[in-house]
Design goal:
The protein has 508 residues and is an all-alpha fold. It has 24 helices and no strands. 62% of the residues lie in helices and 0% in strands. The protein is globular and about 65 Å long. Its main location: membrane.
């Protein structure tokens, strides 16, 4: 048998970060379920692993969101337009079952729809999702009964997407599995989950982020391509990834990512492009042709102007504005004192696209939730932003109740709705500002305070910089150097405990 001296020492794996020990808001909130985790708690010794807990909480919160839609399920979607607004339980899903031809057996993109909407105005993979749900919906009974079933089938499929999102976020930062609870418990996530079909693209994007964190560049690209086939916004993640790979010299991995994304997107879209081009292009034409809509600052400008801008002018200005934002994010990436984390930039580019867009629908918050958690897993900041989004969620439905109800006192007037828009825009910009601050002052980044570099960065994690600009052109600070200088931003007791531990480990 080998001697004790010849036996390799077991590498000590770092303990997962416990939010109730490092986050004051999480610790205070944990009092509802018994208080913060004790120092003698046995971690990983039971069936209740962090990922399983997060998945079950996500399913539970999603179910509560479904219950919140109960007034509409019973009657609000069918009898009186204002009821679904006064109860804040509106959903596109039951209305589009008949409105987009699923009740009549029409094939998306190939069969024309009656009325002004000539073809389905959704990307192909979302259209497939909608069609599968229609196949699973019983075709018997009244149209109201079928629409109820259609919403319920879609809700079940979207619930699976919600669980996937929470689990992927938990497994993206290996040392921070409990961050997935931010996704699972996000109130705006539960409230908006069944308004539309956005969770499909969000789930594929979250899975792509997890694959990238594990160094699987091709799998990341394939999943991101599928996500882009379900919604446009995921493609914007390739922009900051390009700049990060430029700074780190990881061109081979970026090539795999963009190649996988292109192939996956083409596999889904090419058959429809070839045989039903008019139907396939409807989504892109509709995106250009639709006017200024709910939730955007453009709507505030339009409703307060005697001569509002034409749609083409808004398209041009919005495009220029988002390009400027993207250029600023690229400059920030190349000049930051330390290479930003991928999740930080992913959040910033998607937030920039949403804030400058001519539409900011309430369900767009779903795009940001998992990216926000990965970018800034701080309970206080996250909950501030969520409070702003919940306020807007209530504001838009009260505004629609005001504009559709015969009794104006039931709703929110235009000026009040403008304040609601301002609140959720300011909330998003606040979170963006905090993330930018973390990039410029990496010692404030809660993910890096324990010595990590970029846990969701995959091949970028700990990589050397090969191209930087400005002050960043000096020798980069790497994770080991950063950890040596890092001062915990927690309590003084934890700082003293860390010093004592180091002294013990350094003693004979």
């Amino acid at each position: 048998m080998p001697s004790a001296e010849s036996t390799p020492a077991r590498v000590h794996e770092p303990e997962p970060v416990q939010p109730t020990r490092h986050d004051k808001v999480a610790a205070a909130g944990s009092e509802l379920i018994g208080g913060p985790l004790g120092r003698r708690a046995l971690l990983g010794m039971s069936w209740w692993t962090p990922v399983r807990v997060v998945a079950l909480v996500a399913i539970g919160m999603f179910a509560l969101g479904m219950i919140q839609k109960l007034p509409c399920y019973d009657s609000g979607w069918f009898f009186g337009a204002s009821t679904q607004y006064t109860h804040a339980c509106y959903s596109d899903i039951p209305h589009l079952y008949q409105g987009r031809g699923f009740a009549d057996g029409l094939v998306p993109y190939f069969d024309k729809l009656p009325g002004d909407m000539d073809y389905l105005e959704y990307p192909v993979l979302t259209g497939v999702f909608m069609q599968v749900a229609a196949w699973l919906t019983p075709g018997s009974g009244s149209i109201q009964h079928q629409e109820q079933w259609y919403w319920m089938v879609n809700a079940g499929m979207l619930m699976a997407c919600a669980a996937v999102i929470a689990v992927c976020v938990s497994r993206t930062h290996a040392r921070r599995p409990w961050d997935g609870l931010l996704v699972a418990l996000a109130p705006a996530f539960a409230l908006t989950a069944t308004i539309n079909w956005d969770l499909l693209a969000v789930a594929l994007t979250a899975a792509a982020m997890m694959m990238w964190s594990r160094g699987r560049s091709l799998a990341f690209g394939v999943l991101l391509g599928l996500a882009t086939a379900a919604k446009l916004y995921p493609v914007f993640l390739l922009g900051p990834l390009f700049v990060l790979c430029w700074r780190a010299g990881k061109w081979r991995d970026y090539g795999k990512a963009i190649g996988g994304a292109a192939v996956a997107w083409l596999v889904v879209n090419l058959p429809v492009m070839l045989f039903a081009f008019e139907g396939w292009s409807k989504f892109y034409r509709f995106s250009q042709e639709r006017g200024v809509d709910f939730g955007s600052f453009w709507l505030i400008l339009a409703q307060n102007s005697s001569d509002p801008l034409a749609t083409d002018s808004v398209n041009t200005l919005a495009t220029l504005l988002v390009v400027v934002c993207f250029a600023g994010i690229a400059w920030l990436t190349l000049t930051a004192p330390r290479r930003p984390r991928f999740a930080q930039l992913a959040f910033l580019v998607v937030a920039a696209f949403i804030v400058t867009n001519k539409v900011y629908s309430p369900q767009y918050v779903l795009w940001l939730v998992p990216l926000a958690v990965l970018a800034r897993p701080k309970w206080r900041d996250f909950l501030i932003w969520q409070a702003c989004e919940v306020a807007y969620f209530l504001g838009i439905w009260l505004y629609l109740a005001y504009t559709t109800s015969r009794d104006a006192h039931k709703g929110l007037p235009t000026d009040g709705y403008h304040w609601a828009i301002g609140v959720h825009l300011v909330g998003t910009l606040y979170l963006c500002a905090v993330v930018v601050r973390d990039i410029l002052m990496p010692e404030r980044d809660v993910v890096r305070q324990n010595g990590d570099d970029d846990p969701s960065g995959g091949v970028l994690d700990g990589a050397e910089d090969v191209f930087v600009l400005g002050a960043a052109a000096h020798p980069p600070r790497h994770a080991s150097d950063f950890e040596a200088r890092q001062v915990d931003w927690g309590t003084q007791d934890e700082v003293e405990w860390g010093s004592s531990r180091d002294a013990v480990e350094g003693s004979p």
